[in-house]
Design brief:
The protein is an all-alpha fold. 46% of the residues lie in helices and 0% in strands. It starts with 20 loop residues before the first helix and ends with a helix. The mean pLDDT is 91.
């Protein structure tokens, strides 16, 4: 049986980013009625983009 480990939250830094209104609207539409925040969506999108660039 696997031992349960309480997950830790990675350290974060606040950054201000300006998004075009149409992109904000599309993100908000995509996460509507989902258990996902705007920040979580953007972070995952950036991770995916970086992986596709073979940076991570």
């Amino acid at each position: 049986m696997l031992k349960f480990k309480i997950p830790s939250i990675p350290p974060t830094t606040s950054k201000t980013v300006r998004f075009p209104n149409d992109i904000i609207n599309k993100i908000e539409q995509a996460i509507k009625n989902k258990n996902c925040t705007f920040s979580a969506f953007v972070i995952e999108a950036v991770r995916t983009a970086l992986e596709n660039l073979d940076i991570l």
